[in-house]
Every structure is written in C-alpha cells, then in structure tokens.
Amino acid sequence: MKKEESLIFGIRAIIEAITANKSIDKLFIQKGLQGDLSKELMGLVKKHNITFTYVPIEKLNRLTRNNHQGAVAHISPIDFYDLENLVINVIESGKTPLFLILDQLSDVRNFGAIIRTAECTGVDGIIIQKKGGAPVNADTIKTSAGAVFKIPICKVDHIKDAMFYLQGSGIQVVAATEKANSTIYDTNLTIPSAIIMGSEGKGISPSVLKLVDQSAKLPIHGDIASLNVSVACGVMLYEAIRQRL
C-alpha cells in the first residue's frame, strides 16, 4: 500500500467514508470552516467519536494539491477492535490473557517492529490511544511484515480508562520502566497480564505510571542507559512466554 492511497480529501468524500464505517486514522479540518456540508461532517465526527485537528489551510495544501475543500483524512488500512469485546472474548476462550499497551509511541517503524514481535509471541491484542501515537500506515505495515493484519489492535480515548477496564477484568497491568525496583525476571507474568511500553523519548506518562499494578525493568550492564523500545518490548514479551511454557 502506498502512502497516498490512504489519503482522502474533500468534505463529501470524507462523509461517505465515515458513513461506510471506514476507520479514520487522522482527520485534519481547516480552521474556521463554514457551510452546511462542514456542519454535516462535524455532526458525523462527533457521532462516531473521531479524533480530529483544526489546522491552517497551508497544512492542507501541503498534504494534497487537489481541491480538499477544507478537510483531509487518512483512512486506516485496518479495522480497529473494540477493547471490551476483545477482552471478553479472550477471557471466555479459556487462555491466559496477554495484552500490550503502547503509551504515546511515536515512531512508525518501532510500532511496526513491536506489532511483529507481539504477533510472534501470541499477544491477544495491542492497545493504543486515538490521539498522539504512531499511525498504522505503509511504513508500519512493511516493518510489521504484515503482522498488523493478524493481531487485534484497539484504539481507545484514554490509556488510563483502558487500564481501569483491564484491571477490573482481573488483568494485572505491568509497566516496563527503568524507574522500577524489580526486574522483569522477578515479575510474575503467568497470570493475566498487560504490559505497558512508553514512548521513545519520555517513557510512560507519570499519570499512567501511578495506576499500574507493578513496575519492572530490564537489567542494563553497559554504559547506554536504555534499550530501543521495540527491542525492550521483545525482551519483555519473550520473558512472559518463557514463564508460561
């Protein structure tokens, strides 16, 4: 899939995409946009809880040279799963749940590499936030080696709400952070678990970190203070698999 294939422009085209239940990954709307058609678009955006950003017309002009009419959107190449339904289905299947939460991960190649590892380790679902994280685009698909089409990905309004739901469903939430006192090897991952990985630069948000059940770190013996997030995620997930074998 080429990057431009996911781009749609024009208010009517975007309205039709939303009406057809296409997954809108990003939506940019021109500041001060007026008219009946724009009102219809905003009504659908609010009804379907679609995240959007008001931008100056110059940004829209950079995205496409065509007549965008004040609105440009990226259609996701995948359909996102509903978190509550996914959790219920996994629990009812009888297996021990293993979920992965990505808190504001921004690099699409890291995202793709993590998706690939998650699929290989049998993760039941990946949870990302609607706003602020890396999109599912052509680079994500390529880096994931197609795994993005094989593993459920859930988009939620807020990571913290997803955590509350998982914890309420009997699933412990474990943060991967260098601030932890215990290592991943001291953490019990044989029980239902969700592992949180933070962003490349800032790690896990402090407000999110306060809500976890446990924190765990990877031992570092070199001079570099941390691992690449996709590498660290792979180590964490394979430790979960090792414990469950």
Quickly list its features.
about 240 residues, alpha/beta, four-stranded mixed sheet, 9 helices, about 35% helix
Helix vs. strand class: alpha/beta
**H and E order:** EHEHEHEHEHEHEHEEHEH
Biggest β-sheet strands, sense, barrel: 6 strands, parallel
Our Rg estimate from Cα atoms comes to 19 Å
Low-confidence stretches: none
Average pLDDT taken over every residue: 91
Strand content: 15-25%
Helical content, roughly?
A: 25-40%
Question: Total strand count, please?
Answer: 10
Overall 3D geometry? elongated
Total of helices: 9
Side by side, the strands of the main sheet go: 7-6-5-9-8-10
Q: What is the CA-CA span between the terminal residues?
A: 37 Å
Helix-strand blueprint:
Layout: E1 7-9, H1 11-19, E2 24-30, H2 36-47, E3 53-55, H3 57-63, E4 71-75, H4 83-92, E5 98-102, H5 108-120, E6 125-129, H6 138-143, E7 153-156, H7 159-168, E8 172-176, E9 193-197, H8 206-209, E10 214-216, H9 229-244
Parallel strand pairs: 2-3, 5-6, 5-9, 6-7, 8-9, 8-10
Antiparallel strand pairs: 1-4, 2-4
Helix pairs in contact: 1-2, 5-9
